[in-house]
Amino acid sequence: EIVLTQSPGTLSLSPGERATLSCRASQTVSSFYLAWYQQKPGQAPRLLIYGASSRATGIPDRFSGSGSGTDFTLTISRLEPEDFALYYCQQYVSSPYTFGQGTKLEIK
Amino acid sequence: ERVVESGGGLVQPGGSLRLSCEGSGFTFSGYSLNWVRQAPGKGLEWISYIDSTSFAKYYADSVKGRFTISRDNAKNSLYLQMNSLRAEDTALFYCARGKGDGRYAFDIWGQGTMVAVSS
């Protein structure tokens, strides 16, 4: 099983700042099979990034993904008020399709 | 394009439940599908995957042997048969579509159906 470890657990920033979220895999994950999701309270997760760096339909360009091998990053260039939420990375290269434990992005 | 889950409820430990997920607005038979659950206040846990033809089915170790995934493309429906339910199965269960048929990120999610296992 591929274990994904996200850091930090909580990130406190202000609107307009840059957010950098990390996801580290316990073994190499092909970039084709790494995704990022956003989840707000009471809502289903929403796909942000797939294939490590491709934005999903309708996702603003302030969201970007990068990385390879075992280290992946989600960057939000300038935080908007609606970006404060939970973020999960996920690998879907091999079963079980594991998620990271999540990073909570909160308003400072 | 949407998926809508149903079938959740309160069940006693050791009991069974069958969840359903109906897709609309897309060619249901062209996509892989998944079940993902979220226990109250916890993170996301992938549970099961099925490809477009039901040839490939995968399960998390936590549910293997107890849960069975299936689909009926003629009815645009995905199912999860859950047997031998335990308290730790209490969660919101989401149906999630893969972006294609095979190993794809999950691009369409339902709002979930709640399963509570308690005596």
Describe this structure in words.
The complex is a heterodimer of chains A (108) and B (119). Chain A has 108 residues and is an all-beta fold. Chain A contains no helices and ten strands. Chain A has a six-stranded mixed β-sheet with strand order 2-10-9-4-5-6, with no helix packed on it. Chain A has a four-stranded antiparallel β-sheet with strand order 1-3-8-7, with no helix packed on it. In chain A, strand 7 (63-68) and strand 8 form a beta hairpin. Chain A starts with a strand and ends with a strand. Chain B has 119 residues and is mostly beta strands. In chain B, 0% of the residues lie in helices and 51% in strands. In chain B, the strands form two sheets. In chain B, strands 2, 4, 5, 6, 9, 10 and 11 form a seven-stranded mixed β-sheet that branches. A four-stranded antiparallel β-sheet of chain B has the order 1-3-8-7, with no helix packed on it. Chain B is globular and about 40 Å long. In chain B, 41% of the residues are buried. The mean pLDDT of chain B is 97. Chain A binds chain B through residues 1, 33, 35, 37, 39, 44-47, 50-51, 56-57, 88, 90, 92-93, 95-102, and chain B through 34, 36, 43-46, 49, 58-61, 94, 96, 98-99, 103-107, 109-112.
